Amino acid sequence: MNNFSATYTDQYQLSMAQVYFKKGQKDHNAIFDYYFRKIPYDGGYAIFSGLENLLEIISELRFNESDLEFLKKQGFEDDFLKYLRDFRFRGRIYSASEGDVVFPTRPVLQVEAKIIEAQIIETILLNLLNFQTLIATKASRIRLVAGDSTLLDFGLRRAQATGGYYASRAAIVGGFDGTSNVVAGKNFDIPVSGTMAHSFIQSYDDELEAFRDFAEGRPDGCVLLVDTYNTLKSGVPNAIKVAKEMESRGEKLLAIRLDSGDLSYFAKESRKLLDEAGLDYVKIAASNQLDEHVIKSLLEQQAPIDIFGVGTNLVTGDPDGALDGVYKLAFSSDKPRIKISESIFKVTLPHKKQVFRMKDDHGKCIGADAIGLFEENKITEMFHPFEPYKSMNLEKFHQEPILKKVMENGEMLIDKRSLKEISEYSLSRLSELPIEYKRFNNPHIYKIGISERLRDEREKLIRSSKQKLK
Amino acid sequence: MNNFSATYTDQYQLSMAQVYFKKGQKDHNAIFDYYFRKIPYDGGYAIFSGLENLLEIISELRFNESDLEFLKKQGFEDDFLKYLRDFRFRGRIYSASEGDVVFPTRPVLQVEAKIIEAQIIETILLNLLNFQTLIATKASRIRLVAGDSTLLDFGLRRAQATGGYYASRAAIVGGFDGTSNVVAGKNFDIPVSGTMAHSFIQSYDDELEAFRDFAEGRPDGCVLLVDTYNTLKSGVPNAIKVAKEMESRGEKLLAIRLDSGDLSYFAKESRKLLDEAGLDYVKIAASNQLDEHVIKSLLEQQAPIDIFGVGTNLVTGDPDGALDGVYKLAFSSDKPRIKISESIFKVTLPHKKQVFRMKDDHGKCIGADAIGLFEENKITEMFHPFEPYKSMNLEKFHQEPILKKVMENGEMLIDKRSLKEISEYSLSRLSELPIEYKRFNNPHIYKIGISERLRDEREKLIRSSKQKLK
Fold it and tell me: Which residues form the Nicotinate phosphoribosyltransferase N-terminal domain (chains A, B) (predicted)?
């Protein structure tokens, strides 16, 4: 679907790269943190997604000849372009596992590489991780309320252009069962399904005839759309006739689909008609502007809906269009680095770091991740990152390191998992999280703290930076 | 960047296609309308975008061998797959010009093709037009308030994955000047520009040294980011030193960039410092969560900002994640078609149609588009689509037909324009629209009406459909 060249980047990455190249700094070692500041949808957690996709792309990322010609016209210099011709990313990456439950302000991923290489991959890394994490988180919220119902991604037509391709992938990570998107199904090995459109029925003079032709022409997983003219007077009765005809051929109608009107009412009435006709095996699918809140409400009303097709609100991450993930320098040229900001909340964390998840004796999260220096093995006390008088003793907890080495010398170190496996992993991680963090309204805030050593290192850098400004 | 195969579609399109194929209906003539129901951002108009991009893609759309293998596994039948192997779109398309000002509920584009072909292209058409129209409309709103300021798209890192590539294109259509997105710049011939990141400055022990290296290593269009440590005490003074050094080498600093804090205050103070140093030619660029409302406010405060870098809010179309464009059957198998809905506002318009824009003697829009049957040349009276007692006499107006034939037998009929040309066309069309339709708060509602003949045709179909349900 996509051929990523290394020009899938912001021009300033290449401007900075040329300067590093010309000033003899390109091979300086650097560490960048990827993290986000705000959980989308005012939720209590996010589901990290896009990693395995990204690692594959990064390991193949190159500049081709037409890229280099274009960059020459942009004023980049010949010796630098020669460097770019041989560019490949040869760095190391530590990361949370794809599908893990993640929280703001702490590193979800760390890149350790030559500074020029780390800079060139910044944009594609942010672009793919920010978006897939946004969508996997949305999908996870929908899965939380949907129980065992089948969840299908129907969003491609209103997705943000080819972003929909990655949305289909991330939806599975977050707990969806399938997609209508054929090319995503093919390339990411996602179950593909689909029903029929109103236009198909309109193209016939008669709804019954349309249903009949459809069931004969595509009997596998047949779903009939019943709301083109009148759901209960026409659509469902006609679907029942066709279901009976299918039975006589030894086939089974999979489902009917409702796409307008009051879905709770129509689902209940349709269920009655189907059951009265002895078609209790025929499922009910519903679509039309669904999201986690509408599905929650439908199920609370005991609407007998078995399959939810979720479109626009899933694939665009409505109402949040973006995850605010950033990529910040923590170390370079053998020194810890920091960005002092106008706002204390935007001050970055220096040094190579590890993140520890606190768990009780039953393997349940207690609701805290602590960030330490990479060489720390256990954090005894964690401090609030911005309120120095707040701290918490961690001695009694099991401490699980979250960042694992996933790339070395530009090669993926982890075995490729299927999306199904990533999704199952995600659900198992989510099950370790207490319910208070999963509710939609004012979820409990997961604590993120820093170790004493990290706090002291940061303080030292802030002081020396302020000193210089005097 | 993207290789679109015809599997960039929803599976149900192919299910319906197989049925049309098997039931001998695939070559039946069909007409589909593309239109949207709601203007994004509660605005008074939308800018149509994506058309020329779409037409190029559609004219090349094919199923390849690996697609066919995948579809075979999905249960599609051999004779149908054989048809798909030779598939190409050979239909006709009528459309508004890309860049035109468009309004809800009336056809923006009409596809006239064999029903099987029209169905197979539905998803990609919706996907590319919905999104690019959403973003071009956002860009146009930003251009409206930004006057002659330079507008740059900085959004790729938080775009919805590769959707950002099309966002960069649509931003230019809507009036932006350039992008940071290198691959979009290369493939769509968009001016590319970029500045520097905080990480570059952090990677040095000293801000001045960082600026100096950057200006030497990449003097072309050099922009220095001045807010890493302290904008007025450190960033701007250091930028001034480097600007003077550049002068001594016969070079010129293009701009400084502000990316945090109160942009109005910092722009004014920075301007003073630059001017006092005799650097009145050095521009001020600003970024950080900008959108049309923030830019409007900054300019109302007379913040001396010359260049605006707009990111997330532009490329994701915040706060609207999607345009609600639909593709509805209007005619097939030699008959007009209609979809009756639970809501009167969703009843579709049958028949092949033309849209006429009403203009006064000065070429100014009077604020009304009338939809007639395709063979009508002039609409004398237009009727409110849903309130039959409301009508408007149109005899005194010039009537400009909006839908032009842009594709015949699957080949593009129009000359490819540069994005700059499309953008200029868009601005000229927008200038024909009275200001009342362009304001942000409660814009005047543009009237859309239907001709008497179209109204009567629709009535007839509604009646006969209701008749059948009795």
Answer: 9-130
* CB-CB contact of B191 with B222 (8 Å): no
Task: List domains and CATH numbers for chain A.
Answer: 11-135+345-469 (3.20.140.10), 147-315 (3.20.20.70)
Cα-flanking dihedrals φ and ψ of residue A153, to 5°?
A: -85, 120
Residues 6+ apart with CB under 8 A from A179: A152, A153, A154, A168, A171, A172, A185, A190, A191, A192, A193
Spatial separation of the C-alpha atoms in residues A91 and B202, rounded to whole Å: 20
Over its C-alpha atoms, chain A yields an Rg (Å, rounded) of 26
Round to whole Å and give the CA distance between A303 and A218: 28
Distances in Å between the Cα of A469 and the Cα atoms of A340, B203, B207, B271, B273 are 11, 17, 11, 21, 17
Closest alpha carbon to B75 in A220, A195, A190 = A220
Contacts of B8 in chain A (CB under 8 A): 1, 156, 165, 182-183
Q: Cβ contact (<8 Å) for B182 and A339?
A: no
Nearest alpha carbon to residue B301 among B272, B265, B273:
B265
C-alpha dist (Å) from residue B238 to B12, B223, B387: 61, 13, 66
DSSP A154-223: --GGGSSTTHHHHHHHHHHHTT--EESBHHHHHHHT--B-----HHHHHTSS-HHHHHHHHHHH--TT-E
Amino acid code (one letter) for A308: F
Terminal Cα distance for chain B, rounded: 54
- Cβ atoms < 10 Å from Cβ of B468: 13
Contacts B213 to A, Cβ<8 Å: 19, 23
Please indicate whether, in this complex, the C-beta atoms of B3 and A3 are within 8 angstroms of each other: yes
CA A237 remoteness from chain centre = 41
What is the rounded CA–CA span in Å between residue B89 and residue B410? 5
Q: Which two tokens stand for residue A381?
A: 């006390």
Nearest Cα neighbor of B207 from B182, B231, B175, B172 is B231
pLDDT tens track of chain B, all 470 residues?
A: 888 999 999 999 999 999 999 999 999 999 999 999 999 999 999 999 999 999 999 999 999 999 999 999 999 999 999 999 999 999 999 999 999 999 999 999 999 999 999 999 999 999 999 999 999 999 999 999 999 999 999 999 999 999 999 999 999 999 999 999 999 999 999 999 988 999 999 999 999 999 999 999 999 899 999 998 899 999 999 999 999 999 999 999 999 999 999 999 999 999 999 999 999 999 999 999 999 999 999 999 999 999 999 999 999 999 999 999 999 999 999 999 998 866 777 889 999 999 999 999 999 999 999 999 999 999 999 999 888 789 999 999 999 999 999 999 999 999 999 999 999 999 999 999 999 999 999 999 999 999 999 999 999 999 988 887 76
In whole angstroms, give the CA distance from residue A357 to residue A346. 23
Report d(CA B20, CA A200) in Å as an integer: 9
| Segment holding B267, helix H or strand E | helix B263-276
What is the chain A residue with the closest CA to B231? A342
A282: nearest Cα among A211, A233, A217 = A211
Chain A contact probe: residue of B165, B199, B234 with most A CBs at under 10 A: B199
